[in-house]
Amino acid sequence: MNQETVAVPNFTVRLSPTPQGARLARLLATGQLRAWGLPLDRAPQIVAELAANAATHGRVPGRGFRLTLYVVADTLRIEVTDTCGDRLPHPRHPAADGESGRGLLLVAALADRWGVAQGPHPRKTVWAEVRL
């Protein structure tokens, strides 16, 4: 039996849990998506929100976060993994005049699906999928 191995386009990078690390995540993701010839309409904003959450709410001193992008069939999957697995994200409904707290609401609006996977301890991965 002859089985073909299909390569899955993928990209992974570890970044510092800082505002600069979150910004770099968006810039690197945008560059990678361009290199793959994929649309840039929703994915960079999703990466920006998930990376900002990892740098803000998932920050553990001395530990970075990981950004992973991969494409399977017609779906781009974005994963941001941090080492603060005891604090699971959930969308909030901030005050109308609030300046923060809308990140996951934006992710939910932009992504076709999103969720959280725990483990291995102490990690959690927040993921989002975008149909291409």
Short summary of the structure?
With 132 residues, the protein is α+β, with helices and mostly antiparallel strands.
Question: Could you characterize what this model shows?
Answer:
The chain is globular, with a radius of gyration of 15 Å. The protein has helices spanning 19-36, 43-56, 103-110, and strands at residues 10-15, 65-72, 75-82, 113-118, 124-131. Strand 4 (113-118) and strand 5 (124-131) form a beta hairpin. It has a five-stranded antiparallel sheet with strand order 1-2-3-5-4, covered by helices on one side. The protein is an alpha+beta fold and 132 residues long. Helix 2 runs antiparallel to helix 3.
The total strand number stands at 5
The spatial strand order of the largest sheet comes to 1-2-3-5-4
Please outline the major beta sheet: 5 strands, antiparallel
How large is the count of helical segments?
A: 3
Q: Structural class of the helix and strand makeup?
A: alpha+beta
Global outline: globular
> H/E element string?
EHHEEHEE
Q: Low-confidence runs (pLDDT<50, min 5 residues)?
A: none
Return Rg in Å.
15 Å
Task: Lay out the secondary structure.
Layout: E1 10-15, H1 19-36, H2 43-56, E2 65-72, E3 75-82, H3 103-110, E4 113-118, E5 124-131
Antiparallel strand pairs: 1-2, 2-3, 3-5, 4-5
Helix pairs in contact: 1-2, 2-3
Properties at a glance:
132 residues, alpha+beta, five-stranded antiparallel β-sheet, 3 helices, 30% helix, 27% strand
